[in-house]
Amino acid sequence: MNKVRVAELIFPVVAAWYINKHLSGEFKKAKEERDNLVKDWLDKISTKKVNDRFVEKMASEIYDLEIKRKATLEKKATSLLAAVGFVISLISVALVVAGKDWIIRPWTPYALFFFGIAIFHFITSGTSATRVLKVGEFFQLTTDAIKDSLRLEVDEQKQQPVLNWTVEKLVDVEINYSTMLIKSNWLDASQGLFLRGLYSLGISFVFVALNFF
Q1: Cβ atoms < 10 Å from Cβ of 66
Q2: With left for phi above 0 and alpha for psi between -120 and 50, is residue 50 left, alpha or beta?
Q3: Pair 119, 91: CB distance under 8 Å
Q4: Quick check: 114 and 200 in contact, CB under 8 A?
């Protein structure tokens, strides 16, 4: 079992940070080599053995799926943020209602210990969910890409707009691959931390309940 796996089991956000640091480097490298990626895809698709219509269809489907996947990840992250806010608010209300009497009970130190762990996990879960939404650059087709696809070559011979449009989609998906993994890793960490927070909170409530028996 490697160090990253151990870190992931003990504290998911550590593994997410470590892996995403490497993925950020890959994204930066792919972005800098965009022109080379475009040329590489053009060379592959331009061969006579490739069915242009098939490639165009598959590129569009993959591109659309990536856009939907991004929206799904961000929607889940937003839901987690709302859940974290709700749980913390609920805890605050419970503490006010409970009053001060339970603090002097024998099981209270154990309850406070797991309560602190729960709060820490909830806050870290919310922070990780925020990172899903804050992951920056994500390449999508724009009107500028359409203009580029319709430009004339240096020798004034018209390029194939559909082919260029297809290549733009494929390149965007390839560059965005690292960004999608970064978002997914932060979301996984956020979900894991939220569940651990719930478990810790449950144990805390058990100790609180023991004070009244």
Answers
A1: 20
A2: beta
A3: yes
A4: yes
- pLDDT computed for residue 48 by the predictor: 59
Burial 71-107 (b: 16+ CB within 10 A, else e): eebbebbeebbebbeebbeebeeeeeeeeeebeeeeb
Q: Any idea where the domains of the chain sit in the sequence? A: 3-210
Which residue, among 138, 141, 145, 135, has the nearest Cα to 177 in the 3D structure?
Answer: 138
**Per-residue model confidence (pLDDT) at position 144:** 62
Query: Structure tokens of 15?
Result: 């593994």
| Residue 151 CB-density burial (10 A; 0-12 exposed, 13-18 middle, 19+ buried) | exposed
Q: Please give the helix or strand (H or E) that residue 104 lies within, else none.
A: none
Of 7, 4, 11, 48, which Cα lies nearest the Cα of 192? 11
Q: Which residue has the higher pLDDT, 161 or 113?
A: 113
